[in-house]
Amino acid sequence: xxxxxxxxxxxxEWAARTISEDPDFFARLAKIQDPKYLxxxxxxxxxxxNQITGMEPGEVFVHRNVANVVVPTDLNCLSTIQFxxxxxxxxxxxxxxxYGCGGIQTTLDGRxxxxxxxxxRHVGDVMxxxxxxxxxxxxxxxxxxxxxxNVIEQALNVCQSxxxxxxxxxxxxxxxxxWIYALKDGRLKALNNGIASAAQAAEEYRQAVEMCWSRYxx
Length: 218
Ligand code: CO
Description:
This protein is α/β, with parallel strands linked by helices.
């Protein structure tokens, strides 16, 4: 416990500073959470949703896992999406990957790391789907392209979830975005325009994939 004292101390300082700047901050947030965004990102410690988007507590609902994977058998991720869409009525779902993702690199290298190999099989599926064109790139381009393709695929998985299909069916305004973050300069980039209906998903997906190849194929 003793070695974590600095974190508790930093928390006391943060809470005091926050109250000094906005005396009602915690009282207000304790009553209701009303975020407009759901963030589905990588667990990587260098990609914290709130900080990189300049959002305060209360502004973004967050789900993170290794390599920002969305699969229809993952009750954890699906429940987060359902809670965010049905109960919180978020307006945007942002699937955000990042260049230099360890999960993506491990998959590309075919390296065994343990239990997580089973999870990263989902990234392997994305790699296999695009194998031919990925093979034409040099290794660093290939890694960056797969980081982008993985986001685009996982965003499509969000669109194809029953939660999103039902939300769009009843006319709920919620968009699904594919973003990627660069560790080297802290910049986010949008990989699609935001998918606003089930009907748009396939075409937006196709366009985002083609845009990705246009950045890497010479
Ligand atoms: Co990562």
